[in-house]
TrEMBL record:
Transmembrane segments: none annotated. Belongs to the PPR family. P subfamily. PPR repeats lie at residues 24-58, 59-93, 94-128, 129-163. It comes from Aegilops tauschii subsp. strangulata (Goatgrass). Keywords: Repeat, Transit peptide. Pfam families: PPR_2 (PF13041). This is Pentacotripeptide-repeat region of PRORP domain-containing protein. InterPro entries: PPR_P_subfamily, PPR_rpt, TPR-like_helical_dom_sf.
Length: 165
């Protein structure tokens, strides 16, 4: 048994105690994150669904853990579906959430999708960290996407951030 499986067993035990010590979003998110780190995305998604059935509302950490794991598994449709579910349920994605999806699309060479997500992110007033932005701009340039790279670099300059050479 993995650590995440043992933690899941503890969650189940907590739930069976008649609600005296019913788990909230923190232990659920912790176990979900553990399953994601172990590459057990389907177990993480199952627990995510169980969490909802128990009336526990996921937070940005819960969603981002699953989105990150789905992106690393190259399941971008599912990752975007979780992003939409997140927004529909009034959980606000943060810059880490968007970073996962942008990096996922970029790693697959799906530049239009990566740029689309970047634009969505900036329309919400969020920005990537300097290292990720610089890497994204360089990747766009290296793949013949200089127009998008220039647009992103311009946004970085406007937000008082600079692109390193």
């Amino acid at each position: 048994d993995s650590r995440s499986q043992r933690a899941l067993d503890l969650l189940r035990m907590m739930s069976k105690e008649g609600g005296v010590c019913a788990p909230n979003v923190v232990p659920y998110s912790t176990v979900i994150h553990g399953f994601c780190k172990e590459g057990k995305v389907s177990k993480a998604c199952d627990l995510f669904n169980k969490m909802g059935q128990q009336g526990v509302k996921p937070n940005v950490v819960t969603y981002t853990s699953i989105i990150d794991a789905l992106c690393k598994a190259r399941a971008m449709d599912k990752a975007e579906s979780f992003l939409r579910h997140m927004v529909d349920n009034d959980v606000r994605p943060n810059n880490v959430t968007y970073k996962c999806i942008i990096q996922g699309y970029s790693s697959l060479g799906l530049w239009n999708e990566a740029v689309k997500i970047f634009r969505e992110m900036t329309s919400r007033g969020l920005m990537l960290d300097d290292v990720t932005r610089n890497s994204f701009v360089a990747s766009l340039c290296n793949h013949g996407r200089s127009k998008e790279a220039a647009e992103i670099a311009h946004q970085m300059i406007e937000s008082e951030t600079t692109v390193s050479n």
